[in-house]
């Protein structure tokens, strides 16, 4: 069984994937905040729209479509409450 979770829809944001040598197109997404959750969670459809191919989710390995370079996820960033 699941538990009830409070979530707040913060509105629309513009985002893109950006690395030192490449960036995706800007896309529109809805930002949702869950109190007590400090990591960013991206849906599979959002990652696809950003042009991100997940290779090894637990290891944080990914790439842009059409490239052979395997990239590592950024370290987690935390913001104050």
What is the number of domains?
1
H/E element order: EEHEEE
Number of helices: 1
- The low-confidence parts are none
N-C termini distance: 29 Å
Rg value: 14 Å
> What general outline do the C-alpha atoms trace?
globular
Could you tell me the mean pLDDT?
89
User: Given the helix and strand composition, which structural class is it?
Assistant: mainly beta
Largest sheet: 3 strands, antiparallel
Proportion of residues in β-strands = 25-35%
Provide the helix percentage. Answer: under 10%
> Strand order, biggest sheet?
3-4-5
Total count of strands: 5
Q: Can you walk me through this structure?
A:
The protein has one helix at 44-50; strands at residues 8-15, 27-33, 53-56, 61-63, 71-72. It has 81 residues and is mainly beta. Strands 3-4-5 form a 3-stranded antiparallel sheet, with no helix packed on it. A two-stranded antiparallel ribbon has the order 1-2.
Write the layout of secondary structure elements.
Elements: E1 8-15, E2 27-33, H1 44-50, E3 53-56, E4 61-63, E5 71-72
Antiparallel strand pairs: 1-2, 3-4, 4-5
Task: Please provide a brief summary of the model.
The protein has one domain.
What are the main properties of this structure?
81 residues, mainly beta, 3-stranded antiparallel beta sheet, 1 helix, 5 strands, 30% strand, globular
């Amino acid at each position: 069984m699941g538990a009830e979770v409070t979530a707040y829809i913060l509105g629309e944001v513009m985002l893109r994937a950006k690395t030192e040598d490449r960036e995706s197109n800007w896309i529109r997404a809805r930002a949702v905040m869950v109190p007590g959750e400090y990591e960013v969670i991206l849906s599979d459809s959002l990652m696809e729209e950003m042009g991100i191919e997940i290779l090894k989710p637990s290891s944080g390995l990914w790439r842009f479509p059409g490239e052979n370079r395997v990239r590592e996820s950024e370290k987690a960033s935390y913001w104050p409450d």
